[in-house]
Amino acid sequence: MNPANSNPSPGDAVQSAWEAAYQRFETPEAEIKKFVARLRELGADVWSRDAQVVEIFCGRGNGLHALSQLGFTRLEGVDYSPALLARYTGSAVCTVADCRALPFPDASRDILVVQGGLHHLLELPSDLDRTLAEVARVLRPGGRFMVVEPWLTPFLRVVHQVAFFPPARALSGKLDALATMIEHERTTYEQWLGQPEVVQKSLRRRFAVERCTMSWGKLRFVGRKPE
Ligand SMILES: C[S@@+](CC[C@H](N)C(=O)[O-])C[C@H]1O[C@@H](n2cnc3c(N)ncnc32)[C@H](O)[C@@H]1O
Predict the structure, then answer these.
(1) I want to staple 72 with a disulfide (CB 3.0 to 4.6 A). Which of 67, 97, 191, 212 is the partner?
(2) Structural domains of the chain ordered from first start
(3) What is the pTM of this model?
(4) Which of 125, 105, 129, 114 has the alpha carbon at shortest distance from 220?
(5) What pLDDT digit, counting tens, does each position of 75-89 carry?
(6) Pocket test for ligand 1, best of 33, 79, 98, 114 (most atoms within 8 A of CB)
(7) Cα 182–Cα 111–Cα 85 angle in degrees, nearest 5
């Protein structure tokens, strides 16, 4: 549903098809396990368990479950899809909102996390800059921003070739779900993958890099808001 309007629109049908494919792509248990591993890899084991953590673009909240499994208790989530947020069953406080205008006061949170959300933004670089400005506004000085997003590495090129090879797609429900998601988000996905310098520049302009790798089809970034 368009967040600014409670009447269904043609875009809502596309969103529902994307959401259905997303739910077919992997089980919640598999996604939570993947998110726990990523958080550990990016240093979450040494982050304070008292930290106030917000997962933006949190969807059905599996990233929040992963944070909870790691012992974080002061959790919040933001996403503009009421349908996906309604599937979340944990204890984090979740808000339906556009991540380009976060519903939090300045310098009020310790850690913000996004896993696979930024590449859904419609306009680059403007929407990315708006979102990152909001993240920087909401974080306390020294606060962390963790990002995991698709990245056009050689591995991802191979994944694309296989996912769009009809026999492979017919044989694997997971590949078919991936290809369906990409078809429905193609404009923003290709825009994101096609502008790696813009993305890196926007991140590095606002956050001091703590970790940054691009491998296996992913950008993994942790930056800190300057003190
Ligand atoms: C791939 S999903 C993220 C999945 C999530 N990590 C999870 O655990 O379910 C991307 C999400 O971004 C949301 N989204 C896209 N643009 C948004 C925006 N401008 N503001 C808030 N949410 C947005 C979609 O509704 C979707 O839930």
Answers:
(1) 67
(2) 10-136+150-224 (3.40.50.150)
(3) 0.91
(4) 114
(5) 999 999 998 899 999
(6) 79
(7) 45
